Amino acid sequence: MLKDITLGQYFPGDTVAHRLDPRTKILLVVLYIVALFCADSLLAYGILALVLAVCVRVSRVGLKALVRGLKPVVFIIVFTGILNLFFTPGDQALVEWGFLRITTVGARNALFMVLRIMLLIMGTFLMTYTTSPISLTDGLERLLNWMKRLHVPVHELAMIMSIALRFIPTLIEETDKIMSAQKARGADFESGSIIQKAKALIPILVPLFVSAIRRAEELATAMECRCYHGGEGRTKLHVLQYAGRDYAALAMGAVITVGIIALR
Protein backbone atom coordinates (compact mmCIF):
# COMPACT_ATOMS: atom_id res chain seq x y z
CA MET A 1 0.00 0.00 0.00
CA LEU A 2 2.80 2.43 0.88
CA LYS A 3 4.48 1.85 -2.47
CA ASP A 4 1.26 2.96 -4.18
CA ILE A 5 1.57 6.49 -2.74
CA THR A 6 3.16 8.35 -5.63
CA LEU A 7 2.51 11.96 -4.56
CA GLY A 8 5.67 14.02 -4.83
CA GLN A 9 7.39 11.70 -7.29
CA TYR A 10 8.85 13.14 -10.47
CA PHE A 11 9.30 11.17 -13.69
CA PRO A 12 12.01 12.88 -15.81
CA GLY A 13 11.25 13.25 -19.49
CA ASP A 14 11.59 15.47 -22.53
CA THR A 15 7.96 15.67 -23.67
CA VAL A 16 5.84 18.74 -24.33
CA ALA A 17 4.24 18.30 -20.91
CA HIS A 18 7.65 18.31 -19.21
CA ARG A 19 8.79 21.39 -21.13
CA LEU A 20 5.78 23.50 -20.22
CA ASP A 21 6.39 26.34 -17.80
CA PRO A 22 5.48 25.26 -14.24
CA ARG A 23 3.24 28.33 -13.93
CA THR A 24 1.33 27.14 -16.98
CA LYS A 25 0.83 23.69 -15.48
CA ILE A 26 -0.36 25.12 -12.15
CA LEU A 27 -2.88 27.36 -13.93
CA LEU A 28 -4.02 24.46 -16.13
CA VAL A 29 -4.66 22.33 -13.04
CA VAL A 30 -6.68 25.18 -11.52
CA LEU A 31 -8.73 25.47 -14.73
CA TYR A 32 -9.21 21.69 -14.77
CA ILE A 33 -10.47 21.70 -11.18
CA VAL A 34 -12.88 24.55 -11.98
CA ALA A 35 -14.17 22.60 -14.98
CA LEU A 36 -14.62 19.47 -12.83
CA PHE A 37 -16.73 21.32 -10.28
CA CYS A 38 -18.78 22.95 -13.04
CA ALA A 39 -19.43 19.70 -14.92
CA ASP A 40 -22.92 18.26 -14.38
CA SER A 41 -23.42 15.78 -17.21
CA LEU A 42 -21.86 12.59 -18.53
CA LEU A 43 -20.84 14.46 -21.68
CA ALA A 44 -18.89 17.01 -19.64
CA TYR A 45 -17.12 14.34 -17.59
CA GLY A 46 -16.43 12.37 -20.75
CA ILE A 47 -14.75 15.42 -22.29
CA LEU A 48 -12.65 15.99 -19.16
CA ALA A 49 -11.66 12.31 -19.04
CA LEU A 50 -10.64 12.51 -22.71
CA VAL A 51 -8.58 15.64 -21.99
CA LEU A 52 -6.79 13.84 -19.16
CA ALA A 53 -6.16 10.80 -21.38
CA VAL A 54 -4.60 13.03 -24.05
CA CYS A 55 -2.38 14.72 -21.44
CA VAL A 56 -1.29 11.32 -20.12
CA ARG A 57 -0.46 10.23 -23.65
CA VAL A 58 1.51 13.40 -24.35
CA SER A 59 3.43 13.20 -21.06
CA ARG A 60 4.26 9.48 -21.55
CA VAL A 61 3.92 8.96 -17.81
CA GLY A 62 1.58 6.03 -18.23
CA LEU A 63 -1.93 5.45 -17.00
CA LYS A 64 -0.78 2.72 -14.60
CA ALA A 65 1.14 5.26 -12.49
CA LEU A 66 -1.97 7.43 -12.11
CA VAL A 67 -4.22 4.47 -11.30
CA ARG A 68 -1.68 3.21 -8.76
CA GLY A 69 -1.82 6.61 -7.10
CA LEU A 70 -5.57 6.17 -6.56
CA LYS A 71 -5.19 3.00 -4.48
CA PRO A 72 -4.48 4.75 -1.13
CA VAL A 73 -7.67 6.85 -1.48
CA VAL A 74 -10.00 4.09 -2.71
CA PHE A 75 -11.73 3.99 0.68
CA ILE A 76 -12.43 7.74 0.58
CA ILE A 77 -13.76 7.50 -2.99
CA VAL A 78 -16.03 4.55 -2.19
CA PHE A 79 -17.23 6.09 1.09
CA THR A 80 -18.06 9.37 -0.64
CA GLY A 81 -19.94 7.52 -3.37
CA ILE A 82 -21.97 5.53 -0.80
CA LEU A 83 -22.91 8.67 1.13
CA ASN A 84 -24.17 10.37 -2.03
CA LEU A 85 -25.91 7.20 -3.19
CA PHE A 86 -27.97 6.50 -0.07
CA PHE A 87 -28.38 9.90 1.55
CA THR A 88 -29.31 12.15 -1.37
CA PRO A 89 -33.02 13.02 -1.25
CA GLY A 90 -35.15 12.63 -4.34
CA ASP A 91 -38.68 11.86 -5.50
CA GLN A 92 -38.04 9.00 -7.92
CA ALA A 93 -36.78 5.93 -6.03
CA LEU A 94 -34.85 3.19 -7.81
CA VAL A 95 -34.36 0.84 -4.85
CA GLU A 96 -35.89 0.84 -1.35
CA TRP A 97 -34.64 -1.45 1.40
CA GLY A 98 -35.71 -0.52 4.90
CA PHE A 99 -34.47 2.96 5.71
CA LEU A 100 -32.06 2.83 2.77
CA ARG A 101 -33.34 4.49 -0.37
CA ILE A 102 -31.57 4.99 -3.69
CA THR A 103 -32.99 7.70 -5.91
CA THR A 104 -32.11 8.71 -9.44
CA VAL A 105 -30.65 11.94 -8.11
CA GLY A 106 -28.56 10.00 -5.58
CA ALA A 107 -27.22 7.58 -8.20
CA ARG A 108 -26.38 10.51 -10.47
CA ASN A 109 -24.63 12.47 -7.70
CA ALA A 110 -22.70 9.39 -6.56
CA LEU A 111 -21.43 8.68 -10.07
CA PHE A 112 -20.45 12.30 -10.69
CA MET A 113 -18.74 12.65 -7.29
CA VAL A 114 -16.65 9.50 -7.81
CA LEU A 115 -15.63 10.65 -11.30
CA ARG A 116 -14.84 14.12 -9.99
CA ILE A 117 -12.55 12.89 -7.21
CA MET A 118 -10.76 10.40 -9.46
CA LEU A 119 -10.13 12.89 -12.25
CA LEU A 120 -9.10 15.60 -9.78
CA ILE A 121 -6.51 13.37 -8.09
CA MET A 122 -5.13 12.02 -11.37
CA GLY A 123 -4.93 15.51 -12.90
CA THR A 124 -3.04 16.85 -9.88
CA PHE A 125 -0.71 13.86 -9.77
CA LEU A 126 0.06 14.30 -13.46
CA MET A 127 1.35 17.80 -12.72
CA THR A 128 3.72 16.54 -10.00
CA TYR A 129 4.86 13.64 -12.21
CA THR A 130 5.96 16.01 -14.98
CA THR A 131 7.29 18.87 -12.84
CA SER A 132 10.28 18.72 -10.52
CA PRO A 133 9.74 20.07 -6.98
CA ILE A 134 12.20 22.90 -7.60
CA SER A 135 10.41 24.01 -10.78
CA LEU A 136 7.06 23.74 -9.03
CA THR A 137 8.33 25.93 -6.21
CA ASP A 138 9.67 28.54 -8.63
CA GLY A 139 6.40 28.58 -10.55
CA LEU A 140 4.26 28.93 -7.43
CA GLU A 141 6.49 31.68 -6.11
CA ARG A 142 6.28 33.63 -9.37
CA LEU A 143 2.50 33.25 -9.50
CA LEU A 144 2.09 34.51 -5.93
CA ASN A 145 4.76 37.20 -6.26
CA TRP A 146 2.11 39.97 -6.02
CA MET A 147 1.27 38.86 -2.47
CA LYS A 148 4.66 40.08 -1.28
CA ARG A 149 3.18 43.58 -1.29
CA LEU A 150 0.84 42.35 1.43
CA HIS A 151 3.87 41.12 3.43
CA VAL A 152 3.00 37.47 2.79
CA PRO A 153 6.14 35.25 3.02
CA VAL A 154 5.66 33.80 -0.46
CA HIS A 155 9.19 32.44 -0.82
CA GLU A 156 9.07 30.69 2.55
CA LEU A 157 5.67 29.15 1.80
CA ALA A 158 6.85 27.92 -1.60
CA MET A 159 10.01 26.49 0.00
CA ILE A 160 7.94 24.63 2.62
CA MET A 161 5.79 23.11 -0.13
CA SER A 162 8.87 22.07 -2.10
CA ILE A 163 10.49 20.43 0.92
CA ALA A 164 7.24 18.64 1.80
CA LEU A 165 6.87 17.24 -1.72
CA ARG A 166 10.52 16.27 -1.81
CA PHE A 167 10.40 14.28 1.41
CA ILE A 168 7.07 12.49 0.92
CA PRO A 169 8.68 9.63 -1.08
CA THR A 170 11.59 9.53 1.39
CA LEU A 171 9.31 9.21 4.41
CA ILE A 172 7.22 6.55 2.66
CA GLU A 173 10.36 4.54 1.95
CA GLU A 174 11.48 5.00 5.55
CA THR A 175 8.08 3.81 6.84
CA ASP A 176 8.23 0.75 4.62
CA LYS A 177 11.68 -0.15 5.97
CA ILE A 178 10.55 0.28 9.59
CA MET A 179 7.45 -1.87 9.01
CA SER A 180 9.53 -4.60 7.39
CA ALA A 181 11.97 -4.53 10.31
CA GLN A 182 9.15 -4.70 12.88
CA LYS A 183 7.47 -7.59 11.03
CA ALA A 184 10.78 -9.46 11.03
CA ARG A 185 10.77 -9.07 14.83
CA GLY A 186 7.29 -10.62 15.04
CA ALA A 187 5.10 -7.49 15.00
CA ASP A 188 1.52 -7.98 13.79
CA PHE A 189 -0.22 -4.96 12.21
CA GLU A 190 -3.27 -6.68 10.72
CA SER A 191 -4.99 -8.81 13.37
CA GLY A 192 -6.88 -7.64 16.45
CA SER A 193 -9.34 -4.83 17.15
CA ILE A 194 -8.97 -1.23 16.03
CA ILE A 195 -7.42 -0.27 19.36
CA GLN A 196 -4.91 -3.11 19.13
CA LYS A 197 -4.02 -2.10 15.56
CA ALA A 198 -3.53 1.50 16.71
CA LYS A 199 -1.22 0.33 19.53
CA ALA A 200 0.73 -1.79 17.05
CA LEU A 201 1.54 1.36 15.07
CA ILE A 202 3.46 2.92 17.98
CA PRO A 203 6.69 1.00 17.18
CA ILE A 204 6.44 2.48 13.68
CA LEU A 205 5.51 6.07 14.52
CA VAL A 206 8.18 6.64 17.16
CA PRO A 207 11.22 5.79 14.97
CA LEU A 208 9.55 7.50 12.01
CA PHE A 209 9.19 10.78 13.94
CA VAL A 210 12.77 10.46 15.19
CA SER A 211 13.98 9.94 11.62
CA ALA A 212 11.91 12.88 10.31
CA ILE A 213 13.25 15.21 13.02
CA ARG A 214 16.81 14.09 12.33
CA ARG A 215 16.39 14.73 8.61
CA ALA A 216 14.90 18.17 9.34
CA GLU A 217 17.89 19.06 11.53
CA GLU A 218 20.32 17.88 8.86
CA LEU A 219 18.50 19.91 6.21
CA ALA A 220 18.48 23.03 8.43
CA THR A 221 22.22 22.64 9.08
CA ALA A 222 22.93 22.21 5.37
CA MET A 223 20.92 25.34 4.53
CA GLU A 224 22.73 27.37 7.19
CA CYS A 225 26.14 26.16 5.96
CA ARG A 226 25.18 27.40 2.50
CA CYS A 227 24.27 30.83 3.95
CA TYR A 228 20.57 30.50 3.17
CA HIS A 229 18.65 33.48 4.58
CA GLY A 230 15.42 33.43 2.62
CA GLY A 231 14.59 34.69 -0.85
CA GLU A 232 15.80 38.26 -0.46
CA GLY A 233 18.45 39.05 -3.07
CA ARG A 234 18.52 35.52 -4.48
CA THR A 235 18.73 34.86 -8.21
CA LYS A 236 17.52 31.88 -10.23
CA LEU A 237 19.71 29.47 -12.14
CA HIS A 238 16.89 28.91 -14.64
CA VAL A 239 14.72 31.97 -15.23
CA LEU A 240 11.12 31.09 -16.07
CA GLN A 241 9.94 32.41 -19.41
CA TYR A 242 6.70 31.76 -21.26
CA ALA A 243 6.94 30.23 -24.73
CA GLY A 244 4.43 29.82 -27.51
CA ARG A 245 3.44 26.35 -26.28
CA ASP A 246 2.54 27.82 -22.90
CA TYR A 247 0.15 30.37 -24.41
CA ALA A 248 -1.36 27.68 -26.62
CA ALA A 249 -1.87 25.32 -23.66
CA LEU A 250 -3.47 28.06 -21.54
CA ALA A 251 -5.76 29.03 -24.41
CA MET A 252 -6.87 25.41 -24.88
CA GLY A 253 -7.44 25.04 -21.14
CA ALA A 254 -9.52 28.21 -21.01
CA VAL A 255 -11.60 27.12 -24.03
CA ILE A 256 -12.29 23.69 -22.49
CA THR A 257 -13.27 25.24 -19.14
CA VAL A 258 -15.59 27.76 -20.80
CA GLY A 259 -17.09 24.94 -22.89
CA ILE A 260 -17.77 22.83 -19.78
CA ILE A 261 -19.42 25.80 -18.08
CA ALA A 262 -21.50 26.44 -21.21
CA LEU A 263 -22.76 22.83 -21.15
CA ARG A 264 -24.54 23.58 -17.87
From TrEMBL:
One of its GO terms (cellular component) is plasma membrane. InterPro entries: ABC/ECF_trnsptr_transmembrane (IPR003339), ECF_transporter_component (IPR051611). Coiled coil: none annotated. It holds the Pfam family CbiQ. The keyword Transmembrane helix applies. The chain crosses the membrane at residues 26-58, 70-90, 110-129, 247-263. It is a multi-pass membrane protein. Keywords: Cell membrane, Membrane, Transmembrane, Transmembrane helix. This is Energy-coupling factor transporter transmembrane protein EcfT. It is found in: Membrane. It comes from Candidatus Oscillibacter excrementigallinarum. It comes from the Bacteria. The keyword Metal-binding does not apply.
